[in-house]
Amino acid sequence: MAGLSRNNKILQELVLQPGNNACADCAAPEPDWASYTLGVFVCLNCSGMHRNLPDVSKIKSIRLDYWEDSLVQFMAETGNCAAKAIFEKYVPTSFYRPQHKDCIVLRDQWIRAKYERREFTNNFCLQTYSSELFESVLWKKGRDNKQFLKRIFLLSQKDFTLRYFLKEDSKVPKAIINMKDLNAEFQPEKIGHAHGLQISFQEDEHTRNLFVYHEDGQAIVSFFNAVRATRLAYLQKKHPTLQSNDLIPQLTTCCLKEGYMEKTGPTQREPFKKRWFTLSSMNRKLLYFKSPLDATDLGSVFIGSENHGYSVSESCGRSTRSGRWHWGISMETPDRQFVFMCEQEEERREWMEAFRAVISQPMTPEDYASTVMLLQLKQ
């Protein structure tokens, strides 16, 4: 027992050191577990994924398990920083490094890529994602039905497009999607598949959604990172003076908030209707759909900054013509007032925080261009 407490105390001191004080795989704070074959400190969730790789990684609790002196010495000599210098040496610039809040398939494939397949210990992975063409076969949801059908997707860094084909021998693509406004985001719960991916892009002044998945986690994550690599190539050509690190936040983004709210029309005398809303900080748009898996939005609201007359506040829902929901939100824009209703007070609080996060951000030149386009469409 004395040896147990002494070695555990050493490990608990090691985990406080810079680099070790966050999970080596997802950056979660205060990791309590460690791989004594790899020399890394990891969080509880990532430790479970390491246990799925018994030939590569063996896990112990730094507080509860017995540690031999030799293993403690190995942890002291290695640690997260030294391990990353080996296992993450050649990670491509565009490759997504998952955080602790990301979905399981992203975190699982990141761990497998690093330690099981050792993709980043040589520069072969760099060549894979820098190739001009990247092809993947995915299951895609039909636009007007719930059926998923196999489709061939082709990413091109030659003309910065994503094409998809109905059949393997097809010469003519069903769609050609420009990288300019394309986004990809994992949505396993919405799509109903652990590997579900949502691809969004602009089509005829509306947002078009494609919902896809692949049964193999490695395949869908590889496709996702190929999208990011193609987006980076596009942005580097568009902004040749900017560094790659400045462009990384623009490759793909997660929506700030999604969920159902009720909305009314422009006169606020129309009955409230339940709609699925998605808020994106990337283009400052609040999109609304009839249901979560709709292919095209019914409409959108551009959300500018506070300096341009945008604000959000609570509204008294019970004095409005709402349906079942009474937790109201009032959004003021230069053109009109929008009123939304939430089912729960907590949901209203979350939506208002998300709206304020967008309103507090200064507008970019691209944002100004969007407002000009919206004005032209209204004329």
Automatic annotation (TrEMBL):
The lineage of its organism: Eukaryota, Metazoa, Chordata, Craniata, Vertebrata. Keywords: Cytoplasm, GTPase activation, Metal-binding, Repeat, Zinc, Zinc-finger. It is found in: Cytoplasm. PROSITE patterns: ARFGAP, PH_DOMAIN. PANTHER family: ARF-GAP WITH DUAL PH DOMAIN-CONTAINING PROTEIN 1-LIKE PROTEIN (PTHR46021), ARF-GAP WITH DUAL PH DOMAIN-CONTAINING PROTEIN 2 (PTHR46021:SF6). Transmembrane segments: none annotated. Residues 254-360 form the PH domain. Residues 8-133 form the Arf-GAP domain. InterPro entries: Arf-GAP_dual-PH_domain (IPR052589), ARFGAP/RecO (IPR037278), ArfGAP_dom (IPR001164), ArfGAP_dom_sf (IPR038508), PH-like_dom_sf (IPR011993), PH1_ADAP (IPR037849), PH2_ADAP (IPR037851), PH_domain (IPR001849). This is Arf-GAP with dual PH domain-containing protein 2. SUPFAM superfamilies: ArfGap/RecO-like zinc finger, PH domain-like. GO terms for cellular component: cytoplasm; plasma membrane. GO terms for biological process: heart development. The keyword Zinc-finger applies. One of its GO terms (molecular function) is phosphatidylinositol-3,4,5-trisphosphate binding.
